[in-house]
Here is the input.
Amino acid sequence: MKALGIVKETKNKWERRVPLNPESVKKLIDKGFEVIIQPSEIRIYKDEEYRRVGAKISNDLSSCNLIIGVKEIPIDEVVPGVPHLFFSHVIKGQDYNMPLLQKFLNTNAILFDYEKIVDSKNRRLVFFGIFAGIAGMIETLWGVGQRLKQQYKIDTPFLKVKRAYEYESVQDAIKQLKLVGKEISKYGLPDEITPFNIFVLGYGHVSAGCQRILSALPIVKIDPDNLKNLQNNYKGNKIYLSIFREKHLVERKNGEQFELQHFFDYCSEYNSRFAEYLPYCSVYMNAIYWDPDCPVYLKKTELAQIQGRDQKLLIIGDISCDIKGSVQATVKHTTPDDPVFIYDAKTGDDTNGFIGDGFAVCAVDNLPCEFSKEASDNFSKILMPFMEKMLLNDYSKPIKDSDLPDEIKSASIAHQGKLEPDFEYLEEYLATKAQKYRDK
Here is the structure.
């Protein structure tokens, strides 16, 4: 009998999500699989709920044929030779997780990453992105109200927005935000902050989550290239939303015409052109995928230039959360109970809270956990079609020769002590990390 292990989440006290809910676990058990769940006091679904559908509750997952979780598992809990599936946060060469990747290589454990489960067009198939966008947008709107009140002594309807985890559900959040939207429509926003422009960078699942929340407000969509004209022709009881695509964000270094596929293939040959839009931005929502070869879109130097000079930018909602990545103001991650800090672009200093010179930054790195049940149920539904084949697969064979679906093959990072061909570039990051240890 093949056994599936589900780890308890240990990232932080807010991580209550599960990869499979009890309903999905029951379906696997009914098919003849064994499911072992590590006990957890914070999981959104209680141990007893899994026990009732036939799962075993145990800390010992060493007998499992496949181990899954949501976030990274502790290094000392990697089971040698066994396939693991979770968000590993290694594919960008993240320094803090190179020891975890090295552990997989050293123990011949097999690493799959949800982020790389993609279709033939490289579109992600297993994701929490919509809920990241939903929670991130709510947190940022809450941050707008707090920043305006605490730093600038300006009252706005945004003060009635709560933090995401304080709502009973997504629908409850939308219902209450519609009341905020009605107030804005009726009374307008203070002249000091109009036109109120929200920029959303990206158009994928995360962006869709942001837009789902913004639909509760009096939104008018405007093309980024029309923002300049908006300055003299706007309404104070509207919120203006601009969706930024690659063509708005970059230009080729050699001056040639922008081509989307060329940018995907050679993003290092492009510079950011976002600075021309920055003076019009009230709220910056970072909902894009970014890697170190891509341009930096929100630079410290450009923020320093507008800081304190009747700056319009109030808050940065960095859902992507790449530390010092596409948003150089994102110098650290935050948590749902303390989600915002102030970044002073002139000094590089950051201060928790809402008061101080600079820009408010909301950088919660596990936003979907604020709607843990809904996010888990949705994730479970889209993950389940892959579970049976992953459990039955013969992992002694090379991944490319296995019976795994192509979508899962693309997600294999390490197998039998080696990096898979598509991820051999990580050798450089592993070597850099090893050198750092030797230099200490």
In short: The longest strand covers residues 196-201. The chain has two domains: 3-117+372-439, 129-365.
